[in-house]
Structure formats: C-alpha cells, structure tokens
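User:
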Amino acid sequence: MAKPELDESEQRDVTRLCIQSGLLLMQHGAESALVESVIRRLGLALGVGSVEVAIMANALTVTTLSGGHCITTVRRNEDRGINMHVVTETQRMMLSVEAGQLDLARAMSRLEEIKPYKYPRWLVVVLIGLSCACFARLGKADWTGCGVTFVAAAVAMAARQQLAHLHFSPLVNFFVTAFVATSVAAQGLIYKLGETPKIAMASCVLLLVPGVPLINAVSDMVKGYINTGISRWTMATLLTISTCGGIVLAMNVWKVWAWL
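Assistant: Predicted structure:
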C-alpha cells in the first residue's frame, strides 16, 4: 500500500526534524555515512517519498520529496566537541520512529531532550592523567616517570578544559596545552626525577592525539565522502601541527631536547 502524502506543513516539520538530527550528529563527531543514513531512514519512516542529503564540511543540506512537492533546508555546522552520548541517543530516536514507537511530535520532543552528557571536570582530569601514565608504563617508564606523566597530563587537561570553556580556537587550545604538558614534564628531566624522564615527556601529550577526526576522515574518504574527509583530515593535521608547535616551544624555553 502506498504511503499517504504529507501536507506541506507536515513535510516541513519532517524536513526540520531530519536536518536537526543530522546536524546534531555532525556537531558531535559522527561520520558522514552515519549522518546520511539516519536522515534518510528518519524521513522515510515519517512518510516522505524520498530524502536527499548533501554533506559539506561546515554545512548540511536536506531535501524531502512528497507528492511531487520538494522542501529544501540548509543548516550551518559548528563543531561542539565529540560526544558519543548525543550520537547514540539520536540513533535510538530514529530507531524508535522506525519501530512505530514515536510519531513526529514525540520524535521532535525527544530530539530536543538530547543534551550532551559531560563528566565532572575533575574526573576527566584524573582519568586523563591516569591514561597517559599507563601509556608511559607501557613504554617502560619507572614509577617516578609515571608520576611525572600523571601530573603533566592532568595539569595540561585542566588547562585544555579552561581554554575550551573560554571558547578559544581549537588550534590555540592544542598549542597551549602541548606547551603546558611538555613544560611540566620537562621538570622531571631538569631535576632528574626518576630514570625515564624522556618517556614522561613523550607520554604526557597523548591526550592531544586527534584520533576521532583522523578515523572519521579516513572513513569518509573510503565511503565516498571525499570533501568532508579531506576537510576533517586537514583539521586533524592542523591540530597535530599546533601540538608540535607547543612541544617545540616548551623545549626551547626549558632548553630540554628530550626527543633528540
């Protein structure tokens, strides 16, 4: 049985829900293939005839077709940080619509309720310090070196959080964070703390590896989203360059060339 055609008002609401869902995914670290899949499946489940999606680095365009009538809308994309809670909750909302558990109004209400879940800042600082210290231990650092790594990474993460709270550019954020982490870890080499201070200097900047952007970039290019893939790869490269700049500056300031 053919689906009943939506009136213009309903189609507009479906289009708005689709693009808001896709935008939420893009803003919080979802790959392009997932964004397009969720938008298409959501639109079709709510009764439109077809859904066309154009994904760009900083914008999202969605067109729905119902009864020969097209509605197109565009939204600007602004990065709001990686948050898998938002990504999974948006997918769950779409799956509930497909299962018939949510209608259009309830789906819109559910989407508005999705907010980024954030851990307490102190907990993130402690766990980042521990993860970098564990990485140093894997690199055969002694316990003193692991302690230096923990302190350097924790202080750097606190600085990173504060810079993000003040809405600094991610490039500035990564540069300053790398400088702080390397500066703190350099004290271990200057004051000869432990037998492996060089490993501590290398491990304390682990928190600045742009893993998710690099993974998404490769995934996008492999799956045919060349423009967004190149854009994400370029941004990840710039973040890496900023990190290297902060590390080199700290080494110059403290006259410690631990990696050479």
